[in-house]
Structure formats: C-alpha cells, structure tokens
Amino acid sequence: MLETSKDILNIVLAISVFGISFFIAWSLYYLVMILRQAFKAVKELKARMDKIDETITAFKNKIESSSSYLLFLGEGVKKLVEVMRSRESRKDENKNKDEEKDEDEEKTSNK
Questions:
Q1: Do the Cβ atoms of 11 and 19 come closer than 8 Å?
Q2: Terminus-to-terminus CA distance in the chain, angstroms?
Q3: Using CA atoms, how far apart are residues 44 and 15, in angstroms rounded to an integer?
Q4: How far apart are CA 96 and CA 40, in angstroms?
Q5: Is the whole model's pTM more than 0.85, yes or no?
Q6: 3-state helix, strand, coil in the chain (%, to 5)
Q7: What parts of the chain have a pLDDT lower than 50?
Q8: Are 7 and 1 in contact (CB under 8 A)?
Q9: Which pairs count as long-range contacts for 2-9, CB under 8 Å and 24+ apart, including other chains?
Q10: Do residues 2 and 8 touch, judged by C-beta distance below 8 A?
Q11: The predicted structure's pLDDT at residue 73
C-alpha cells in the first residue's frame, strides 16, 4: 500500500486538504450565522425605529390638530374670566347698595 514516500505525501496532502476544507466550511457556517444574527438585529432595530417614527408622527399630528383648538380654548377662557369679573363686580355693587340701604334704614329708625 505505501510503497514510496510519494504515497505518504499524497495521503498527508489529502488529509490536509480535508482538514482545510473542513475548517473553511466550519468558518463559513459561523460567518453566515453571525451575519444572520446581525441581519435580525438590524431588522428588529429598523422595526423599533419605525414604531418610534410612527409615535412621533402621531404625537406631532395631535399637537398640530389641537393647536387649532387652543385659539378657541383661549378665547373661551378669556370670556369666562370676563364673565366672572363682571359677576364679581355686580356682587360688590349689590353688597355696597345693601350696606347703604341698611345704613339709611338705621339712620331713619334712629330719628
């Protein structure tokens, strides 16, 4: 079977080629798995970024739509304050009139 040193060389070369090809295949397999995990991570990151973008866009749209109502809300608050002030001033006027009336009644009853 092993008659010359060339036969031993061929067997060693065959084992070496098999070892190298096995190592290359194993390395490629792990490289592919690493790339697959990286792809999944990038895909998940992209999905999260899309959700964040959708949330920001929805928040922006709500703020834009509510900003048009802020003018009306401000006007309403302003009117409410005016009504409360006028009501307060009417109460003060009525109170002053009642006090003057009471004073007049006291003066007339004392005479």
A1: no
A2: 153
A3: 43
A4: 79
A5: no
A6: 95, 0, 5
A7: none
A8: yes
A9: none
A10: yes
A11: 77
